[in-house]
């Protein structure tokens, strides 16, 4: 669940002269507490930004592992990067805006839009139990070196738009204890599915601050699969190898269906009908041709283009976990300056020599007859210089999947299953 902590004291007027964003000054001047109220008008632009970033990040990860399973939670990474962007300036900020597909005006529209999307998702799903109704929670936090002075405006944006409170840690004197505290925080908020986000050695005595996000989903299917009907069946990988995997069978009834040149898709709904998992399978050999089309427009047409009809579905059971370091990937996507000594993160702190050391991300997903469980965590590490009638849809070849919020078209988790028998 997104933390709803009180904001810090109002920013002194002198800070306004330092180039504090207008929306931060407005927030500081209000003197109110808690998250900034959601602005529904900002949600569409934020959803478009998340879809654009999702497409870019997925294509990069898929290209790096052409013959393997892939999973990530771009929404989690986007939130962690957006919090970092709140303290960036000059070229660093411009590059991060481009990679995040940030809408105009920058950075206000992105902060406001992500805050709105996050609160709307919380309102829909945070009270679910994960057994009868979907449960979806997110959390953000900021972990700082004991002697690091943060700019009040930066803290104000993180508290007001991301619900992220600052937690001072002794990175210098108790490095391992600090790493374990952050890992415990992430594990507690992902039902222990992400037990060690920060691997040994990722935190050092010169670590200045770490920005973290978690996302956790547990959701039952609207039409649960019948457990006795699950049977071992062949699944043909793109390299031609056939593996035997447990294949689930309905009964299934009405759900989203979409068919176009080269691929078709089914949108498998979770219990309340608001969340679903889109499963995309090529109609010609090879998933790569479908992945090559993946951009914001393609994702939008997929997630918002389904038509309801009866479908007979067979779907593999699988679990998979993927930890990744995203520094090189994000640099390649267009934000290299943030990882160099030329980085401008002066909006975070009076320390003039901060840069992003790495962005780490880990995602877990498990799919069975009852439903889905998925979790992810992201950390930006800052140092000085995450049987009715109708078509048959038998998923027996590699496929792409996207767990998404139906009304907004926001993708939450995206992945590829090349081999359901591989767990990591």
Automatic annotation (TrEMBL):
Domain (Serpin): residue spans on this chain: 55-420
Taxonomic superkingdom: Bacteria
CDD domains (UniProt xref): serpin_thermopin-like (cd19590)
Family the UniProt entry places it in: Belongs to the serpin family.
Name of the molecule in the record: Serpin family protein
Taxonomic placement: Bacteria, Bacillati, Actinomycetota, Actinomycetes, Micromonosporales
